[in-house]
Amino acid sequence: MQSLQGCRWQAAAHGPYRSEVLVTMSRRAHIQRWRWFPWGFMAIAVLPGLAAQTAPPAPTFDRAAWQADYAALKTELEQRYANLAWFASPQGGVDLPALDRYTEATLAIANNDGQAASAIGNFVRSFHDDHFSALPMLQPGIAEASPPAISLTGMDAAAGCAALGYTSDMRVSFSAPFESLPGFHMTSDGLSSAFRAGEMTLDDGRKLGIVRIHNFHQNQYPHLCLSAWNTLQQSSKAIDLDTLQKEVETSWYIALATQLKHFHDDGVAAVLVDIGQNNGGNDSGDAAARLFTARPVRSSLLLISQSAEASGYLDEQISEMQTALSLKPSPAIASLLHSHLAVFTDSKKQASRPRAMHWVWHIRRDWKTNACKRLIPAGTSGGPAGYLPPTRDADNESARRLHWPLAMQRQWAAWTGPVYVLTDAKTYSAAEMFAVVMRNNGIARTVGATTGGAGCGFMIDAKPVVLPHSHLRFRIPNCIRLRADDSDEVAGIAPDLPVLPFEGENKRAWATRILRTVDDDLKMSR
Fold first, then answer.
1. Average pLDDT of the segment spanning 300-316
2. Can you spell out the DSSP letters for 8-27?
3. What integer pLDDT is reported at residue 40 of this predicted model?
4. Strands 301-305 and 479-481, how do they pair?
5. Which of 303, 272, 304, 312 shows the shortest CA–CA distance to 478?
6. Exposed, middle or buried by CB within 10 Å (0-12, 13-18, 19+), for 153?
7. Please, are residues 61 and 111 in contact by the beta-carbon 8 Å criterion?
């Protein structure tokens, strides 16, 4: 448990970190400062005669209100933002004290709402956290009551799946145009089937299996919804949202496992999993890793913000584990349930104890030694338990509430040979979780470019922050996942085998270099 002493910051301790004020706030000041920020050099200048040359602010512009908005946003970050301690560390790559001074200085010389909004927007973007971002403005007023729940009565498969939001708005094709290269044979188009897949014949005659996972959320696979709907209808089972979702989720894993088994039957030497331009999804980013190996796979450690909203997620998991105990599992599973219940119960107590985080705007603290991160244990990306071996059917209903991937244990180890994972700068969130679990457990080597760095994001829905004056809206992530070296996943995952596109390079040439890199690595590993 974190020490409150470790969260204190006093002005006396600020000395070693104090630097001259970036901009003298007086409009009469005649100074210019060049300073280094994480995004490069930038000059903020207040030049001679500025007061006379600059038009007075428009009567409707309220600088003090914008400054109060900025202060309110910082307070919300101190109370809710899971990645704040990471970015407050040297390892996080953002100098928060310098960024804060720069933002305050920019607001101090802003002359209109556009300039002030730009200053706050630049502050948010400087974190380079895809989950911490602006949301569209909403019309002020009183929202109408939500319409009734979707009724599937009388709908056919196409209408029902469309009404429930099963539609692919992601890139189904490979993120590099492998389809267009000589020696490639497509076996599945990803339109009439769940996954685009094919086999590439390498120079020495061996074959490389390539499968595209364009998203880790099953609502991006309308083909699976149509198939699940028809299956339920033929079996005379009731078609409701929960039943359909479970059927689609199971079908997703079965489809991926089936594709991997086809690769095995075709004698491919290795599998390349393409998750480039995959913006994430759900927990399948963790569970899917089990399909690629027969070895034990451990999930990444999960931490959530020490805040009131964290209690919702903790309560949900506590309730699930209590339900699991009511199913009278074996003594071994019951013992594990009691152990993890104790951890989650303690975390819930910690969630009600606020921790001061205002120090982040004044000093930087090392990530590994910092005692004030305002984060509490919340199990792993695979559930309360990071690993459990396959269980007998009688225990599975209880055990999978501890370790969620057990729900799909029949699809584990569909492939057990060499694996490569293709990533790029648009690989985010649950796709990053997949890449990390594959790497941390020695299942795969990553190839391509560093991922986008979205990290965990959200373990429970939370209301966005709405600033009181401007009504600007932002979503604030409430969880982090730790990599094997204890760093925050939001930093992005650099590839084991970098293959960055060259300036002006044809995409087919880039795809060829990716395959050549994988081929060379395979030859070295013989």
1. 92
2. ---GGGGGGG----SS-S-T
3. 41
4. antiparallel
5. 304
6. exposed
7. yes
- C-alpha 455/C-alpha 453 separation (Å) is 6
**Encoded tokens for 379:** 């199990």
Phi, psi of 227 (to 5 degrees): -65, -45
DSSP code of 281? B
Give residue 45's pLDDT: 41
pLDDT: which is higher, 229 or 48: 229
Reported in sequence order, the residue ranges of 339-468 that DSSP labels E, i.e. its strands, are 375-380, 419-423, 445-448, 465-466
CA 321 to chain centre: 25
pTM, 2 dp: 0.88
Greatest Cα-to-Cα distance within the chain, rounded to the nearest angstrom: 81
Coil, helix or strand at residue 386: coil
Lowest mean pLDDT among 138-147, 229-238, 244-253: 138-147
Which residues, at least 6 apart from 229, have a Cβ–Cβ distance to it below 8 Å?
Answer: 157, 160, 161, 239, 244
Cα separation values, 157 from 228, 248, 378, 463, Å: 9, 13, 38, 33
**Site of tokens 């590439």:** 200
From residue 275, how far is each of 75, 112, 210, 463 by CA, in Å?
Answer: 36, 43, 11, 30
Q: How far is CA 388 from CA 257, 283, 332, in A?
A: 20, 16, 11
Mean pLDDT on 396-414:
96
